[in-house]
Design goal:
- Helix 7 packs antiparallel against helix 8 and helix 7 runs antiparallel to helix 11.
- This protein folds into 4 domains: about 160 residues, Beta Barrel (OB fold (Dihydrolipoamide Acetyltransferase, E2P)), CATH 2.40.50; about 150 residues, Beta Barrel (OB fold (Dihydrolipoamide Acetyltransferase, E2P)), CATH 2.40.50.180; about 120 residues, Four Helix Bundle (Hemerythrin (Met), subunit A) (Up-down Bundle); about 150 residues, CheA-289, Domain 4 (OB fold (Dihydrolipoamide Acetyltransferase, E2P), Beta Barrel), CATH 2.40.50.180.
- The strands form 6 sheets. A 6-stranded mixed beta sheet has the order 1-4-7-8-6-5. It has a 6-stranded mixed beta sheet with strand order 9-2-3-12-11-10. A 6-stranded mixed beta sheet has the order 20-13-14-23-22-21, with no helix packed on it.
- With about 650 residues, it is α+β, with helices and mostly antiparallel strands.
- The protein has 16 helices and 34 strands.
Length: about 650
């Protein structure tokens, strides 16, 4: 992000002030230069959920989370497309920075205090709240509206009279919380320093379950996540709000299911995918419409551009749906064919007949691509649930299921990488508890607060209305008796993963984090199942091929491959798995000891039990990671002895 400086205009008096002036269309506004920290070009932003319409999003400015307001929307003006002249003024009020998006920055102008006039009474009252005064220069030919930086940047600067009492009370509380002053800041700083000293460098470590919704990355603290489920059609609840899809029964309990996209006022996942597909194939549609009237280099360039446009989207697309993947695999192969045929090398030695045949071939392939993309659009709605998941979280003492686009990974994030959220107003139901900054601020993760995702009265009404009957229907007589006697068994929370077609589970308490497969350095003379070592935030850890460890056939890594980091007594080890499936809770009464026929086998020594889910229709092999790591240590020691 480049910082810009402005040369001040000629001075206009010893008792004056300097204004950084900017334009909104043809009108000139200004802020006192003492409140303007810097001026930057429009940065990459992360959109925030359900905030006022003037909040463009947040960005990372040298490690600080910067909320950015569109000042046009703030003033009730029509939004305009961003241009090369668009700039962000970084305004500092009491040590808190806010970015204000403006059409263009003009200059720094020095004016005398006697040149300030109060705003005309004809200006609307809500706009007047932001105005410090009006400056007339050049005999009134140039007028600058001087703004009050504190009021413009305050999220409570909206006209308080328009709020209901509850909102006003919340706003007052937010103001009080943000106005503790230097003493409060020092106490907070002292607490953070104490946490760092107690927990080592970087402070306390938080485990986060990250997920994707509408192109942004969100997360919940692991301790608030009960389990992660596949999406099933819930039972509708009459009169429920639009974002409440209905209720499902999970192990005898009623679980309200909320569509997080609807709660965040976003379009549906399917609609977004269809729109992205159409945009990716739009250049092919245009090229086909014009291909009859173009020839030579012109049609080749058009086909090449269309192929490249589609290639970018295809390379970024990832889905667990076999139907969607197969359809796009066909489109991908045709697209590569078009790209090769339209290149200059492919047509360099062709005569007129050869060029005509090549042209027909490209047109036919392009038409087949369009058909494949249309097929994909028709398949999205029926197959999208294979990618979506339901994250079950604790909310106000109850459990709530939230439908998300994808579950990404489990992260370990240090305390000093999490900042409190900007003091921005959120609509009821959605608020942030913090913002995690990773990769030097290039990756921002929004931490959602779970407390008010669904109105408590609505939640109680849903559970009360549907709970008893559904629970009775779900429980068998024997189960009911066990519950009455308090013998349902303890809940064990597992992270499950796939190796081939088999599903395995590891207690979540044993897992440090789950990462994508990164660079692995091979180590000489290591056992076959040791892939090598990797660098995990400065710590070198061994990485094992779980397939090799279990004498399974090797498999090339892909986008689904993950490394599960387990930590036993401070010893971290990475286990490579084909894919991570979900987080779930299972009752101890549904866990059986491993059969004798497998417990004595080569890999049976690693199995601690068999989990039965869905009345035994789904079996999960529970791994004892302690025994896995013991086997590793023994193999390494044996190898060292052999080479001694």
């Amino acid at each position: 992000m480049a910082t810009e400086t402005l040369k001040p205009a000629a001075e206009a008096g010893a008792d004056g002030t300097q204004l950084v002036t900017f334009l909104l269309k043809d009108e000139e506004f200004g802020f006192d230069i003492m409140s303007v920290q810097e001026i930057i070009r429009l940065p990459k932003m992360v959109e925030l959920p359900d905030t006022p319409d003037y909040v463009e999003g947040i960005s990372s400015l040298r490690g600080t989370v910067l909320p950015i307001f569109d000042i046009r929307a703030r003033f009730g003006m029509k939004r305009e497309e961003h241009t090369d002249r668009s700039r962000v003024l970084v305004i500092d009020v009491d040590g808190k920075q806010t970015g204000l998006l403006v059409d263009s920055v003009r200059q720094v102008t020095r004016v005398g205090r006697n040149e300030f006039e109060p705003p005309p009474g004809a200006i609307r009252s809500e706009t007047t709240d932001y105005i410090d005064g009006v400056v007339k220069l050049d005999d009134g030919k140039r007028i600058i509206i001087a703004l009050d930086a504190r009021r413009v940047c305050s999220v409570n600067g909206d006209n308080g009279a328009t709020r209901d009492p509850g909102e006003q009370k919340a706003a007052t509380g937010a103001t009080a919380r943000s106005s503790h002053g230097a003493a409060g800041d020092e106490a907070k700083h002292s607490h953070k320093e104490q946490s760092r000293e107690a927990a080592g460098k970087g402070g306390e470590v938080h485990q986060l379950v990250s997920f994707q919704v509408g192109g942004e990355e969100f997360a919940f603290p692991m301790e608030q996540v009960r389990e992660i489920l596949r999406v099933e059609t819930p039972k509708e609840v009459p009169g429920a709000p639009d974002h409440l899809l209905g209720v499902s029964t999970v192990r005898g309990q009623i679980l309200p299911i909320v569509d997080l996209r609807r709660l965040l006022r976003l379009s549906s996942f399917a609609a977004d995918l269809i729109a992205a597909c159409r945009l990716a194939g739009a250049e092919y549609q245009t090229w086909l419409a014009q291909s009859g009237s173009s020839s030579g280099k012109e049609y080749q360039m058009g086909a090449t551009a269309a192929a490249e446009h589609l290639r970018k989207w295809l390379s970024a697309f990832n889905s667990s749906s076999q139907a969607l993947t197969e359809t796009l695999a066909k489109a991908r192969g045709l697209n590569e064919h078009v790209s090769k045929q339209a290149s200059g090398d492919a047509s360099a030695d062709l005569d007129a007949k050869g060029l005509e045949a090549q042209h027909k071939d490209i047109v036919a392939s392009a038409q087949a691509i369009v058909v494949a993309l249309q097929t994909f659009e028709g398949q999205v709605e029926g197959n999208i649930r294979e990618d979506q998941r339901i994250i079950v979280v604790d909310s106000n003492g109850s459990q709530l299921g939230l439908v998300v686009d994808h579950v990404n990974e489990v992260l370990n994030v240090q305390d000093d990488a999490i900042e409190p959220p900007p003091n921005l107003a959120h609509h009821q139901g959605v608020s942030l508890s913090g913002i995690a900054k990773l990769n030097d601020g290039n990756r921002l993760i929004l931490l959602l607060a779970t407390g008010n995702l669904l109105d408590r009265q609505v939640l109680e009404k849903v559970v009360a209305g549907a709970g008893n009957e559904a629970a009775k229907a779900e429980l068998k007589p024997g189960d009911k008796k066990e519950k009455e006697n308090g013998q349902a068994g303890e809940e064990l929370q597992l992270v499950t993963f796939l190796l081939g077609e088999e599903e395995y589970g590891v207690p979540i308490a044993k897992i440090q984090e789950i990462d994508r497969l990164s660079k692995i350095t091979q180590t000489p003379k290591a056992p076959k199942f040791v892939e090598g070592v990797t660098n995990l935030r400065g710590e070198v850890i061994p990485v094992l091929s779980t397939r090799t460890l279990f004498a399974m056939e090797a498999k090339a890594s892909d986008d689904h491959t993950r490394v599960i980091i387990v930590d036993l007594g401070g010893a971290k080890t990475g286990l490579i798995v084909d894919s991570v499936k979900q987080v779930l809770s299972i009752s101890s009464r549904n866990i059986a000891p491993p059969p004798a026929s497998i417990s004595s086998g080569a890999d049976g020594q690693f199995i601690s039990g068999i989990g039965k889910v869905d009345d035994g229709k789904r079996m999960i092999i529970l791994l004892d990671v302690g025994k896995v790591l013991t086997r590793v240590e023994q193999s390494v020691l044996a190898g060292l002895g052999a080479h001694a």
